Structure formats: structure tokens, C-alpha cells
Amino acid sequence: MTVASAPGKIILLGEHGVVYGEPCLSVAIDVRVGIEMENGEEFTVNGRKMDSRRHTYIKHTVEKLWKGEPLEITTFSKIPSASGLGSSAAVTVATVACLLKMNDTFTLEETAKKSFEIEYEVQGGGSPNDTSACTYGSAILLSNEEKDGFVWKISQQEKNWFVYPIDIPDIKLVIGMTGIKSKTKKQVEKVRKFVKYSSFARELTEEMGSLVLEGERALKKRDFTRLGEIMNEDQKILHTLGASSLELEKLISSALKAGAYGAKLTGAGGGGSMIALTDEHEKTAMAIEKAGGRAMVVSISHEGVKVWD
Fold first, then answer.
1. Contact of 176 with 294, CB cutoff 8 Å
2. What is the pTM of this model?
3. Which secondary-structure segment (H or E) carries 72?
């Protein structure tokens, strides 16, 4: 039997901008997905025959990486699906880690690279941000600029990304979930059309990139007041790009009124979740719940993917 566990993730700064070559700052959070694999009579997931509709990422990963006997696969998840918290990335990373371990080829870098390949093929595009965050843990900066200190480089169709580890303290964040499924592909395409036909939108994505780097500096200085301000500026851009929603704005407003340093959507938007940086975790969570959201206080997961047999 082989078991792997991977954390979820939230994007502190830079979603959507990352699609256009801008940097992105993400952290792993202490809600995790677990995958367990053992030999079986046929390929199954949680007792059901594995199929591409229910088990899209798992099936694609198995077909790509496994040449052995049928496997019985069991999944465990604390990450709500389609919530902007990296559920599909965590499932993919944990599945890849299991299979690489069974093939005696497991490393963090290989897990990150193979996981991105899977997500790219399934989704028809994207960046390695989510899969790298779930693989590495703690905090990462994804950038297309090469400088000293990156942990791995990932390439796809002449695009290059470099993953840099970011030192982050043991902070807690409040997540507010709208309960509306976030459809990543739809939201990315919506923003893409705006960017394609508007120089103003392109300038906004460049501004987002500058905010990411400024946010990284604030995080390193432990200047949470400034980091919160940057999050608020980033949210204004995301709203202008059309990535937000009335439900998200309501939860964001409630968090700020409760005293949060900053609050913004995380992930593709259109639904899904928002995050709040605050010292008043319970007060902020209660405000989000009162505004109609489901709140969850999370810590940083300094451990990325883990695998054992």
C-alpha cells in the first residue's frame, strides 16, 4: 500500500495575471487531500470503477504514469471542491506522488513537473502555480524571470516558469466560501477576452505583477498592514477585470468592516472563496458567516506533499 497527502493552496496575490506572464504569490494551507493505493482486481476509486467523468485527474494520471496491475484507489479530502483552494491540484499532486513512489522515481521536482503536465492536458492550458504550491508547501513565488534561488524550472510550449521558495511566518488566514462553484476555465476565458481587446486590461495585469512583488517584500518584512493594503488594491483590479462577483464582494466587505488588514478573492473567482488577512480571526469569521458565507480559519502548511509505503 502507498499513501500520499498534499495540502490545498490559496493565492495571496496574482491570480489571472499569472496567465499573462506576471508573477504569482501563493501559500499552502493546512487542509489536505489523501490518496491511498493498493493492488486490486480492477481500477477503482472509492469502490467505483474508475472513469474519466468522476475521476478526471486521477484517471488521466494513472494512464500517463502507471503500467502495472490494476489499482484500488481511495481518496480523502478536507478541501471543498471548486472553491479556489486547490482541490484538483492537491488530488493530482497526491496521485502523482503515489505513482512515482511506486515507480521508485519520487522527488518533489518530478512530482511538480508531472502534476503540471496532467493539469495542463486536462484543462487545456494554465500555469504550474497551483501544483507547485501543493507540492512544495509553505509559500512560493512563481515567476517567468530566472534569478538565483529557484527550486525548479518548468517549461511548456516555449514558456518557462521558475518556482522560488518564500519564507513565511506561522500566520493564520480566514477563508470565506460563497458556496458557488468556481469554474476556472470559464473565468479565465472571460478575463482573456477583456485582456485581448483592451490595452487598459493589459495594463491592469502588469500592475498586478508589480503588486505581487511589492507584496512579497511586505511579507518578508512582516508588514501585514502593507500586505493587507496590497491585497485590497489587487482585489480592485480583479473586480475591474470581471473576476469577482456580488457574493464575493459581500464577504470581502464584511471582513474589512470586521477589521481585516486586507481581503480579496482567491483563485479564478466568479464564486469560490475569498481570503482575509487579520489578527481578529474569530471576529472576521463570524462576520463572514453573518454575511452568508461559510468561514474557515487556516494555518500555513509548511509541509508540501508527503508520501510513504
1. yes
2. 0.94
3. strand 71-77
